[in-house]
# Entry
Amino acid sequence: MTINAPLIPPESSTDMRSNSAWAGFKSSLWFQTDPTPPAYPKVPDSLDTEVAVIGAGFAGLSSALALLEQGVGVAVLEARQPGFGASGRNGGQVIPFSKHEPAALCAMYGEEIGRGIVDLTISAADRVFDLIRRHGIDCDAVQTGWLQASSKPAGYAALKQRCEVWGKAGAKATWLDGDAIRQYCGSPIFQYGWLLGGGGTVHPLKYVRGLARAVSSLGGAIHGDSPALSLKPDDGRWVITTPTGVVKARRVILTTNGYTTDLWPGLRQTVVPLYSMQVATDPLPAAIGAEILPGGQSMTDALRLIHYFRRDAQGRFIIGERGPFRDIPRESDTPRVIGVARRMYPALNGVDFPFRWSGKVAMTTDHMPHFHQLAPGLSAILGFNGRGVAMATTLGQVLAAACLEGKALSTQFPVTPMRPIAMHSLNLVGIAAMIAYYRLLDRIA
Ligand SMILES: Cc1cc2nc3c(=O)[nH]c(=O)nc-3n(C[C@H](O)[C@H](O)[C@H](O)COP(=O)(O)OP(=O)(O)OC[C@H]3O[C@@H](n4cnc5c(N)ncnc54)[C@H](O)[C@@H]3O)c2cc1C
# Structure
């Protein structure tokens, strides 16, 4: 069993202000196809606002947007520029699905909240496409569904049951066997799978930048290159210091996910930041491209360590998997995932993958996003476990609704106490070993 990457992230990877972190962001296909970063100004000397949102990804910007739509003043502070975190680097797969099945969610949180999470999950993709339509965001959005399929005989019953239970819960789930699934995937290797309607794809960086533009157009302030360095209560308000000025707010929302710093003690230790890596081809010749996912769905396989893949608006093929702990994957990190792509789609043999990039996924021990009320007027949502395009957008709106109603807690999603993971840095070692073990099991299966 070999692990071909450092077990613990090197310091440079954890410092968002480092050149390597910015170079990692710029290396993505998404940046290269939308290359002009907006330059939102730094925080001025002093700024007063009703709500300060820290972190300009899907979660922060969708909560800012929902607050502004109800007339609440918002300032968004971002360490670099909007989309710098996972939101600007991900696979752009919009997936209205949760790892836990509906019955498990009801067992975990009780019938009412469990059912509420199921409904939020099922509606999550529609919320994304609705925002895109309402704010006229030009981000190559396609809502043709999400596929999950397997090439292994083992696992048939479990995947079929997953399709059935989500269908019964109200999702648009269709079971696909044999030739039907092979036609959807455009690959000879898949034997069975399911199609989840409502899902689809976006250009994630264009989507998150579009959200930022919508926030600005509604009068919200966005401040780039403005990392929050400290956060303290003072006489009924929160005081946030940044390198260039001080922000005072009645409420603060933290949406920093896998890029969480030590701003609030213990919060960083509630998630394990794992890297996910993607590679992409240039636009494929029509003869090859038209055969791959001909219906334009996004897709993942059903392995323990999944591969996720899709085509983009220009016909590139993009595939991702769990990656090494570095901001920019090396060429030597990519042969395995390229090999997977070529096994699924033999027409890709001989096709180059000139793009490679990665980003941090925030994992939680219960595989659920976490919504915390950290102190009066201070909330956080984080831990999207690699499924945040739809869910971070959705929970941003849920958090805004809780703020608007003046409630400390959400009635739609469980608010849980912050629980730092014991021996957090050692957990990275354990997870790296587990990844290698799962990879071995996937290979044996
Ligand atoms: C490679 C990769 C592929 C993925 N693929 C998919 C996919 O296909 N589908 C899917 O649903 N999900 C996917 N995900 C997950 C998804 O991208 C995330 O769940 C989602 O983007 C999280 O959004 P967010 O707003 O919570 O956090 P982020 O987008 O990570 O934003 C957090 C922001 O907080 C900022 N920040 C941190 N600390 C501070 C501070 N102190 N002051 C100011 N700013 C700060 C950071 O700079 C960052 O911009 C993927 C993730 C990765 C990394």
